[in-house]
Amino acid sequence: MIQIAIIGASGRMGQELLALAHEHGFEVSGGVGRSATPGANFKLVDHVSKLDPKKTKLVIDFSLPELTPDVLSWCANEKVPLVSGVTGLTAELKSQLAKAAQSTPILWAPNMSLGVAVLSRMLNELKHLHGFEFQIEELHHSRKKDKPSGTALFLQEKMEAAIGEKAPEPLAIRGGGIFGIHRVWAMGEEETITLEHNAMNRRVFARGAMKAAQWLITQKPALYTINDMLGHEA
């Protein structure tokens, strides 16, 4: 078993990661969180600097952007690979990601779903649609803070690269307990194309993160994406 630590271990995503770790060949040996983690048999600490590097071969982070600088610093200094699914990163934090990745392998994705990664690849085909208008729409639960979502902004970047022009800002809707729905609209005068990804639970993101961790543990220092992993497997 490969020993890993989870940042945000006491949160909802932390619980999903904990549930999937063993079947993916990982032992959770440490975690960073605010409160006790039900069923956990590892030490929970309140800061990444208190993790034991000798018992941490990889870190998975689904916490908050304000924790990212310390997580990056620790992983870079200890040469521990990092899988980060933190959303709402500023340009400065993304720059820090790239710098830390010079010292240790880092895979960052605003959405760990393999389906979203495939959807992002499909957007390249929109380059064939001339005279169309494009719009991204995203729906999430009312507790989600970033708006538009990191996934919507990621898809927007891919879409604009394909069509060669700027598109309207993604439409963001918040309500209920929706895990995550992302739609890409391509609208012509005589036809419309809609691409949609619907996350039915949080486990899909945790499973993607575990798959990313399995791949990243053998990679050289660099900043990777889910698409890098998929491209490697192709």
Tell me what the structure shows.
This protein has 7 helices and 11 strands. The strands form 2 sheets. A 7-stranded parallel sheet has the order 3-2-1-4-5-6-11, sandwiched between helices. Helix 2 runs parallel beside helix 3. The longest helix is centred in the C-terminal third of the chain and has 14 residues. The relative contact order is 0.16.
Strand and helix layout:
Elements lengths: L1 E6 L4 H9 L5 E7 L10 E3 L12 E4 L6 H11 L3 E3 L6 H10 L5 E3 L5 H9 L10 E8 L9 H14 L7 E4 L6 E7 L4 E7 L4 H14 L6 E2 L1 H8 L1
Parallel strand pairs: 1-2, 1-4, 2-3, 4-5, 5-6, 6-11, 7-8
Antiparallel strand pairs: 7-9, 9-10
From the 3D coordinates, which CATH architecture of the largest domain would you assign? 3-Layer(aba) Sandwich
Radius of gyration: 18 Å
> Which percent bin holds the helix content?
25-40%
Mean pLDDT: 94
Spatial shape:
globular
Number of helical segments? 7
Spatially, the strands of the biggest sheet line up as: 3-2-1-4-5-6-11
Q: Compute the number of structural domains.
A: 2
Would you state the CATH class of the largest domain?
Alpha Beta
Task: Give the CATH topology of the largest domain.
Answer: Rossmann fold
Name given to the CATH homologous superfamily of the largest domain: NAD(P)-binding Rossmann-like Domain
Largest sheet: 7 strands, parallel
Unreliable segments of 5+ consecutive residues = none
**Pairing-aware structural class of the strands and helices?**
alpha/beta
Number of beta-strand segments: 11
Question: What is the CA-CA span between the terminal residues?
Answer: 26 Å
State which percent range the strand residues make up. 15-25%
Give me the strand/helix succession: EHEEEHEHEHEHEEEHEH
